[in-house]
Structure formats: C-alpha cells, structure tokens
Write a structure and sequence with these properties.
Layout (H helix, E strand, L loop, with lengths): L4 H19 L1 H4 L1 H19 L3 E7 L2 E8 L1 E3 L4 E2 L6 E2 L4 H14 L24 H5 L15 H4 L7 H12 L16 H15 L3 H10 L8 E2 L12 E4 L2 E4 L14 E3 L1 H12 L6 H7 L4 E2 L6 E2 L4 E5 L4 E10 L2 E8 L4 E7 L6 H13 L4
Antiparallel strand pairs: 1-2, 1-15, 3-4, 5-9, 6-9, 7-8, 10-11, 11-12, 12-13, 13-14, 14-15
Helix pairs in contact: 3-12, 4-8, 4-9
C-alpha cells in the first residue's frame, strides 16, 4: 500500500507522539509518580494545613489517591479518599453535558434563543443558549449583586421559579454588559438559567435530571446536586484562621443550581473523564462542542468552551482542559489532558488560593516537566 507524503508524515507524527506518551513518568513509572506526588502533597499539608482529597489517574487507572485533614472538625471526622466535597464551578461543565444530552435527543439546540424556553425573560430574544454556555450573553453575574443576598442566605427551600423570577425582576431594569456574542465575562447567571431550561425541557427537577440522565449513565454513584431540603453527608467547608478552622458562612445551594451546586468525589471525577474519553454519554460531536475553542478568554492564553477552559501548557507541549471552583469554604480543580489520559483532581474543603499551583505541580510531576 502506498502512502502520500502528507499521510506518511501524519503516521510518523502519531507514532512519535505515542512513543513520547509511553515515556511519560505517569505511564512508565506510576509508582514513582505516586511517591513524588504524596511527598509533595504531604509537604503542602504540613505547610498550609489544607483539608483535601487528591486523585491522579491514567484514564480509568488511579495512580494515586490521598486524603488530608478533616471533613468535620467538631466531631473529629477525618477526610477519606471517598469523602464527597462541593465542586463549586466545576458544576458548570456537567450542566453543559446535561444540555447536550437533550440536544442529542433532539429536544433542544444550543442555537435556540432563550426566548424559546424562558419566554419573556429580559433580552431572551437576543440571547442563545450557546451564549449562556460560554459566558458571552452579557447578562450580569447575579451572585455579585446585593439584590440576591436574601435568597442566597435564606434558610428555606428556594425554588427555581423563585430564583428565575428574581432575575426577571432585577435584569429588566439593567442593561446588558455587552451585546450577546460580542464580549466575554465570567458569569454564574448563564448556567443557573440553563439549569432552569433543563427543568422545563426534561419536565423534572434539575437535581433529578442530573442524577438519572448524567451521573447514573456514568456510574457516578457518589455525585449529586446539593439541595437545601435534602440532607446529604459530605465534607463541611472551612475558613482557615491561623491554626484554627471556622465553618464557612451558609449559602443556600438552591441558588447555585447549574452553576455551583454539585457534590462529588475524586474517584467519580475519574469516571467522568473516562466516560468522556470513550463517548459513553456524549457523542464525539458533542464532546467537540464542550471543548470548542471559539471564544478566547481576555488577557489569557486559554479559550472557554462549554463550562471548561482549554489551552496548551508547558511551552505548548500538551492540550489541557480544566476548571477551578470556589465557594464558601471550598476550593476545587479538575484538570485533564485528553490526548494523554492524565487526570488530576484536587478537592479542598477549606478555602485556599494555592489550589492552581498545587494542580500545576502535580501535573508537572506526572509529566516529568521541570518548573
């Protein structure tokens, strides 16, 4: 069989890439990587006193799993590798996945206007679902607005209708920050509205839809959407003050539906990665939408897809897909290198500004990259 020059070069590049991948430390010597990661994480814990779960995997194969500190300081309950913790904004990509499941079934399109699903909402005729998915709608970020403080601090079961109704009221008198599709600003508003869209199209609560249509098919048995009226056992969130830990201020998670209300474990996040890699839930076409690089993040080398950031790291050697999360008492980061199969998950139940540096260092150890 004859190959053209282009085809031959492509095959050589693939083979060279595969040879390089086989030489990566996390593939060639996973035990050494695990030992180095543990030593590093132990030192961070000693220096900073973090509470966390750390998981590193090669696709479905867990290379290293480690837990640190307490899930409940008052009752001296320690974190384990199975302890669920709040994901905060990592939730957004799961909302995107849920929406794409409905698109695959022909029940909506990311090109639909918001008016088609939430008639009468301010600026709904101008805004399309894909604008909400990529932070390009121009809607203000409701979590930064004092008008929503009462709902977010309410000790009661706030309904999605009530939250969306408040947005109707507040946004009617507020201009867009920019025309839809003409700018970019990170906003929780879009994903909270998308959760409401999912409820209307699927005719069931967002939490139930995610359980049955997203988490269930991916065997994510320890993952759920946090709700005020439903008690679930997961790590409490803390704020560190010197050597002391204070339980973080309350926030009604009903008001973060779609944008920050998910709870999960490091092991379930590995299952999620594996499901994406094998197209278990999303088709190749849908996954390409999640990881699209159409929208550059201002003043950053990364682009924003559907609930994820995408870029190249370490002198452009590797494509990475990641997202951070932060909410009262919690910090989280999920980073995956799709072409290599490397996954790094760090879930902290103490607010920390060092999580990005921590995930970067763990990734460098696994890839054998010098700082």
């Amino acid at each position: 069989m004859k190959f053209g020059i282009t085809t031959t070069l492509l095959i050589m590049m693939v083979l060279a890439s595969q040879a390089h991948a086989d030489e990566l430390p996390f593939k060639s010597d996973p035990q050494a990587v695990a030992a180095q990661v543990k030593a590093y994480v132990d030192q961070v814990h000693k220096d900073q006193g973090i509470f966390a779960t750390v998981v590193v995997a090669d696709n479905a194969k867990v290379i290293h799993a480690q837990s640190l500190g307490y899930r409940d300081v008052e009752h001296k309950r320690r974190n384990t590798v199975d302890t669920p913790s709040k994901l905060a904004s990592i939730t957004k990509q799961f909302t995107a996945v849920g929406l794409l499941v409905l698109q695959q079934e022909g029940r909506l399109s990311v090109h639909d206007t918001l008016e088609q699903h939430v008639p009468g909402f301010p600026y709904a005729k101008q805004i399309r679902l894909h604008h909400l998915l990529q932070h390009t709608s121009g809607l203000p970020n409701y979590v930064e607005m004092r008008e929503f403080d009462e709902l977010m601090g309410a000790s009661r079961d706030v309904s999605s209708d009530e939250l969306i109704g408040k947005m109707y009221e507040v946004f009617t008198d507020r201009p867009l920050e920019f025309e839809p599709g003409q700018g970019w600003r990170y906003s929780d508003t879009g994903f909270t509205i998308l959760a409401f869209v999912i409820e209307r199209v699927a005719n069931m609560p967002y939490a139930d839809f995610m359980k049955t249509r997203v988490f269930g098919p991916m065997d994510m048995r320890s993952s759920f959407i946090d709700r005020f009226a439903v008690h679930r056992d997961y790590a409490k969130g803390y704020i560190q003050k010197g050597s002391d830990y204070e339980e973080a201020p309350f926030i009604n998670m009903n008001c973060a539906s779609g944008s920050g209300s998910m709870v999960s474990t490091g092991f379930d996040m590995v299952k999620y990665h594996t499901a994406l890699q094998t197209n278990k839930l999303l088709s190749k076409e849908s996954l390409m939408l999640v990881e699209n690089e159409d929208v550059p993040i201002p003043n950053d080398s990364f682009h924003y897809g559907y609930g994820v950031a995408i870029g190249r790291v370490y002198s452009g050697a590797y494509r990475v897909v990641n997202h951070m999360g932060g909410i009262n008492g919690y910090s989280s980061m999920f980073q995956r290198f799709p072409e290599l199969g490397l996954v790094v998950v760090v879930l902290m139940n103490v607010k920390s500004s060092s999580i990005g540096a921590m995930v970067d260092k763990i990734s460098r150890i696994a890839l054998g990259e010098e700082e």
